[in-house]
Design a protein that fits this description.
Layout: E1 3-8, E2 16-25, E3 30-35, E4 42-47, E5 55-58, E6 63-68, H1 83-91, H2 96-104, E7 113-118, E8 123-127, E9 135-136, E10 140-144, H3 154-166, H4 170-177, H5 195-201, E11 211-221, E12 226-235, E13 238-248
Helix pairs in contact: 3-4
């Protein structure tokens, strides 16, 4: 997942709205969002290489999303899969702050990541690269890509402005997530990849020969405990299918 945009306790009827894109190599095998048979109560897509996920919700009203922290110098071969963290939180009985504090003790077991975890009532963010403890997100609009929460990269700045305008409208959120506009060179972050890759990775929706946005997901958690999930899946940059789920927290 390369960008997660959040409207938290901004809309009184829908206190948590999340709009996210997952970017990945096109040849990495992936299952679309579904209710997991081996983990009843989890709704998520699935990385078929490692078995984890980048974004999921539970029937109990928990939500968790994860992005990679971009550091091309990091060697990941001997580390555990980040996707397992999302499943662990969704299955856990711990509140988000306690779970992330426990995770902080094992932070070096994983490649760099950012995580958002909690419920519609309480939401926390954490990165194992920040050197800081979990942070409780205040009400407002938030965005994280492959740096720390609310780092002003062009895509996160643009997303936050759009979220302020259209967080209540699902179609507008999907239009935001579909924006392929590359940032100007002078606005690009310097993350250790080439200028060509900085350009390619700068839009909200990424499309290239072998890598890009694989799915866009909008989740709405309402005050009456209804959870709405809509996912649009892309095959080498072109729309392929849509999956929708609506259920009540139990």
């Amino acid at each position: 997942m390369c960008v997660i945009n959040i409207a938290f306790q901004v809309n009184p009827e829908t206190p948590l709205i999340l709009a996210a894109n997952r970017d990945e190599f096109y040849d990495r095998p992936t299952a679309p969002s579904h209710w997991w048979e081996d983990a009843p109560g989890i709704l998520a897509g699935r990385d078929l290489s490692k078995g984890g996920t980048w974004l999921g919700v539970s029937k109990s009203g928990r939500i968790c999303a994860l992005t990679n922290y971009r550091d091309p110098s990091e060697l990941n071969t001997q580390k555990e899969s980040r996707g397992s963290i999302v499943r662990s939180f969704l299955e856990s009985q711990m509140n988000a702050e306690t779970f992330l504090e426990e995770l902080d003790r094992e932070k070096d077991c994983y490649p760099g990541f950012n995580i958002v975890a909690g419920t519609k009532d309480e939401l926390f963010s954490y990165s194992n690269k920040s050197g800081e403890k979990p942070i409780q997100l205040p009400p407002g609009i938030h965005s994280v890509s492959n740096a720390f929460m609310n780092t002003p990269w062009p895509k996160t700045v643009k997303a936050k402005k759009e979220m302020e305008r259209c967080y209540h409208d699902r179609e507008s959120l999907f239009s935001m997530l579909a924006d392929e506009t590359q940032a100007a060179d002078e606005m690009l972050p310097k993350t250790g990849v080439s200028l060509e890759w900085e350009r390619l990775l700068s839009p909200l929706f990424i499309k290239s020969k072998g890598y890009g946005t694989r799915c866009s997901t909008v989740i709405m958690m309402k005050t009456d405990d209804t959870i709405e999930w809509e996912e649009r899946i892309f095959d080498t940059g072109e729309f392929s299918q849509q999956r929708s789920f609506t259920f009540k927290k139990v």
